[in-house]
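I am still getting used to backbone structure tokens and would like to learn alongside you. Please make up or recall a protein chain and show it to me in full. Would you write everything just below, so we can both look at the same thing?
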Amino acid sequence: MTTTTAPTRRRSIQPKFAPWLFLSPAIVLFVAFLILPMAYAIYLSFVALRVNGGAFGVRQLTFVGFDNYVAAITDPELLAGLGRLLHFGLLSVPITLGGALLLALLLDVPGVRLARFSRISIFLPYAVPGVVATLLWGFMYLPSTSPFNWMLKAVGLPAVDFLGPQGVFGALANIAVWSGLGFNMIILYTALRSIPLEIYEAAQLDGASEWQIAWRIKIPLLTPALLLTFIFSLLGTLQAYSEPMTLKSMSDSISSSFFPLMKVYRDAFALDDTSGAAAMSVILALGTLVVSVLLLRVLQRRTFEQS
């Protein structure tokens, strides 16, 4: 009788807060490095430094309501930065996703050679830090060190100003595509490998070619994964900062407010306008959140329809 009830008694006296004890380090880090900075940024977005006490007064933080948000929304520099970011995204996102889809489909063809080596080679640029990748490409863009311009001159063609006003968007998009292609390819390739082989076999028995299988079976079944990679690429575009900031010292075409995050950094740390920068940060975060939620809803609806 005693031996059978002892384990039950031991389980009943276990502390109920044990899971919270194990989760406490992660919770502390989450609150300290995410929740508190977000709350402080929201607080700063509703205040501003004002001189109180007349001509000889002191500067104090004063509640200004939504004045910082109105100023941020109507700021022509921010609107211009969003326009440049849209231009950059229209170049980089379609090429990244289209290239990743093409490579994933090619690697999924039965009997393809060197598939493992190819996957590693395509994914390898993603492991290179963004700043290092930008510096590497930056030296290849400079007129004095560019191997591309050397080859153009060798065949009698004029040199290309990769970092000029017209070429800088292509230069930045090329770095983004080179860095993100492998990551998105791995996601799409993994989704392809999860498709049951019986579907392919049934299509082959019906006389479908590899092209028809890819177009009519693989790509439709890849829609959730494509939407997921699109969300990742969109978030990466909205957070573009290190690439243009690194190339800024090499190009006069990149200003300190070229992209929205660059303007936030300049206003906060160069112009000492932390309240305005906080308001811009909150606006960008809310916009990113809204777009992500809408796309996730589409992804969820599409997944349930297929299931």
Notes: The first strand starts at residue 47 and ends at 52. The chain has a mean pLDDT of 87. The chain has 14 helices and two strands. The beta strands are 47-52, 58-63.
